[in-house]
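**Paired protein data**
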Amino acid sequence: MLFDRRIKEPNPLRVLAQDPYAFGICTKETDFSVEVKELNVEKNYLILRKRIDGSVGYICIFERGSLTIEEMRSIYAEFRNLVLRLTNSNFREVELVLICKHYDAEVLESISEYNRTYTHRVPIKLILNEY
């Protein structure tokens, strides 16, 4: 199953901006220090910076109502730009989390293919918002 978890929240990015540990995307046991790096309301994404034993990593969280394959391509293009800006193109240091209410079957296939192809990268996580 590609779904990491299910939530019921009208404004998940704002909740995560106030409490990065909400919804269990980050855990205090694993991710020692998590802080908000950037909240982009216009493009509906949030970037969290996490520090673990001196290492820095990022979590890019995109929120969409309906996730189509076209929207997935747009998100991935934005994600690539963020990875370039944050880590000089080191995809291993950046997690991609998608929050959506609806999705196309093609999207699940695309995420599954990505996770199988890029095994050296953090797998894409999909969270279903049932609000």
User: Anything to note?
Assistant: Strands lie at 3-7, 33-40, 45-52, 55-67, 94-103, 125-129. The domain at 3-129 is CATH 3.40.1350 (Trna Endonuclease; Chain: A, domain 1). The chain has a mean pLDDT of 93. The longest strand covers residues 55-67.
